[in-house]
Design brief:
alpha+beta; Rieske Iron-sulfur Protein; FAD/NAD(P)-binding domain; 4 domains; 6-stranded antiparallel beta sheet; 5-stranded parallel beta sheet; 11 helices; 16% helix; globular; transport; flavoprotein; Rieske_2Fe-2S; oxidoreductase activity, acting on NAD(P)H
């Protein structure tokens, strides 16, 4: 394995940032002079002590060599913090013990073929380097030195790394932004969600030192969108994926409140809604989706919301206090919002067309068990019906009328009835879009147009797990991976996507984890107890397990994800 270390050596101090005179829509311009140089490990061997400050280092004996069998992990305490000690193929490895995403204890995860998979949300880390290999999350783990002396295992670690439990990969910077024309960039990323951000970060991690511009309709820098429905009173800065300084440090320019209206592929130009034009060399489209709105009478009354931004979520929480809430759609978003508002609102009602929540996704039996949990928490369901009218009093919502004839008192209505890809601006572009509006990409996230890539919720791509069937997987983890694959292929790495979809939902302090792609399943094999909400459900198609879901059964979903990631087939008889 050839290891490359990217070192950026500045020749002069960075000059002060200058705001471009064109106003808020213009990117910040940084004057940076630097030279990127590649060093090969064999040319410049790393010194045996990588810790600059001896006072920052702790070394401790953590166990006897025979205390761990091959394939075992152990959390060990070094006094200033904990580390994860791993033994695989007779070798010992040590790294951070908490997943940098949400802090899950990795000792409860799954060790397989040189990597550890998080038990909660499926992120994977290389045990030799600590590098993140599958998502969600952005940071890698710190790696610690291990030595064996007189049959004892010692770990040498930085105190700071033990305390932070995360490591941002080394990144390049832009060599000379001051030389650029404001209206041209090497890489333009449309959309600032997980796919867009991971694409930008991956480019920098791979040593790309040219200009990167991200643009977003949002007013905020990239943030943790799944928290909008799981933790609704979070402020934008609390859920930011990276602080402002990060974007400055690595010269990733973000244009907020900027909407691309059209793409001219012939002239490699993006045209913005305000008329501003930007030329690009490589383009990533990661615009996500747009929530569907109600089409019934009275849909324009006040206090009817789609949860799209932190402001939407915050406003709903504020208005919901001791009021009557109606949620339309027993989707992931709808159910998470219902769970979150139960303790705050006077009443919470859910209206849904299907007979049980999540029927198409989790199946009827799991859906019914989840529904019962909600009913035990005072949530009322109105199933197999839809909204026919929203009634107002002095412009504000007063009642929700159902097609069944039932009238529900309502001060606030949250709509979660699905979404459509935000790709309308590409209709005349020549970029291949399917009948549902999804951008069609190959395994390298390339569209039919050279130099144009697409990622995230707005695409269909070939899923290796399902014999390369073209699928849309609108999940947080998958968006991260799409962004990484797109970046690597902008740099001509020829990298194909082969990740296993992984998602989770959280309601009333309980989580359902899910891995695979269960679309079109014809049977569900359930182990455990649905009534106790301690179960694992295997979704099968013909004789093959295509997906798994669990509640209070960790780390089964991560185990199945590792088996599927290795390309192995799980048969129905194996789980019955």
């Amino acid at each position: 394995v050839e290891v490359k270390i990217e070192v950026v050596i500045p020749e002069k101090e960075r000059s002060k940032e200058e705001m471009s005179p064109n106003g808020k829509a213009s990117p910040l311009v940084y004057k940076v002079n630097g030279t990127a140089r590649h060093y090969h490990l064999e040319e410049h061997p790393i010194a045996s002590n990588p810790y600059h400050n001896p006072k920052d280092v702790v070394e401790a004996s953590v166990c006897h060599v025979k205390d761990l069998e091959n394939g075992q992990m152990r959390e060990v305490d070094l006094g200033f913090g904990k580390a994860l000690l791993i033994k695989e193929n007779g070798e010992f490895y040590a790294m951070g013990h908490k997943c940098p995403h949400y802090g899950a204890p990795l000792v409860k995860g799954v060790l397989s073929k040189g990597r550890v998979r998080c038990p909660w949300h499926g992120a994977c880390f290389n045990i030799s380097t600590g590098d993140i290999e599958d998502f969600p999350g952005l940071d890698s783990l710190p790696r610690f030195q291990v030595k064996i002396e007189k049959e004892k295992v010692y770990i040498r670690a930085s105190k700071q790394a033990l305390q932070t439990q995360r490591r941002t990969k080394m990144m390049a910077k832009c060599i000379s932004l001051s030389n650029y024309n404001l209206s041209s960039t090497n890489v333009l990323i449309v959309g600032a969600g997980a796919a867009g951000l991971v694409c930008a970060e991956t480019l920098r991690q791979e040593g790309f030192s040219d200009r990167i511009v991200m643009c977003t309709m949002d007013r905020h820098l990239p943030y943790d969108r799944p928290k909008l429905s799981k933790s609704m009173d979070s402020h934008p800065e609390q859920i930011a994926l990276r602080p402002k300084e990060f974007f400055r440090t690595y010269d990733i320019e973000v244009l907020t409140e900027m909407q691309v209206a059209a793409v001219d592929i012939k002239n490699k130009t993006a045209v913005f809604k305000d008329g501003f034009k930007m030329e690009y060399n490589k383009l990533l489209i990661a615009t996500g989706n747009t929530p569907k709105a109600l089409s019934c009478k009275g849909k324009e009354v006040e206090n009817v919301f789609n949860i799209r931004t932190p402001e939407d979520a915050n406003r709903v929480v504020k208005l919901a206090a001791s009021k009557n809430i109606v949620i339309v759609g027993a989707s992931f978003l709808g159910m998470e919002v219902a769970a979150y508002l139960t303790e705050r609102a006077h009443s919470v009602s859910v209206v849904e067309l299907e007979e049980v929540p999540f029927k198409k996704f989790f199946g009827e039996r799991v859906g019914r068990a989840v529904m019962k949990m909600f009913e035990n928490n005072r949530v009322k369901f109105y199933m197999q019906t839809e909204v026919s009218e929203l009634r107002e009093q002095e412009g504000k919502l007063k009642e929700v009328v159902l097609k069944s004839g039932k009238v529900l008192r309502a001060d606030v209505c949250v709509v979660g009835i699905g979404a459509v890809p935000a790709t309308g601006f590409l209709k005349q572009s020549g970029i291949n879009i399917d009948s549902k509006g999804f951008i069609v990409v190959n395994k390298m996230m390339q569209t039919n147009i050279p130099g144009v890539f697409a990622a995230g919720d707005a695409v269909t791509f070939p899923l290796a797990l399902r014999n390369n069937k073209k699928v849309n997987v609108p999940h947080w983890q998958m968006a991260h991976m799409h962004g990484r694959i797109a970046a690597l292929n902008m740099l001509a790495h020829g990298m194909e996507i082969s990740t296993v979809p992984y998602l989770w939902t959280a309601m009333f302090g309980k989580s359902i984890r899910y891995a695979g792609h269960g679309e079109g399943f014809d049977d569900v094999v359930i182990q455990g107890d649905l009534d106790e909400l301690k179960f694992v459900a295997f979704y099968t198609k013909s004789d093959e397990v295509v997906a798994v879901a669990s509640m209070n059964y960790d780390p089964i979903v991560s185990k199945v994800a590792e088996v599927l990631a290795a390309g192995r087939t799980i048969r129905k008889r194996d789980v019955e």
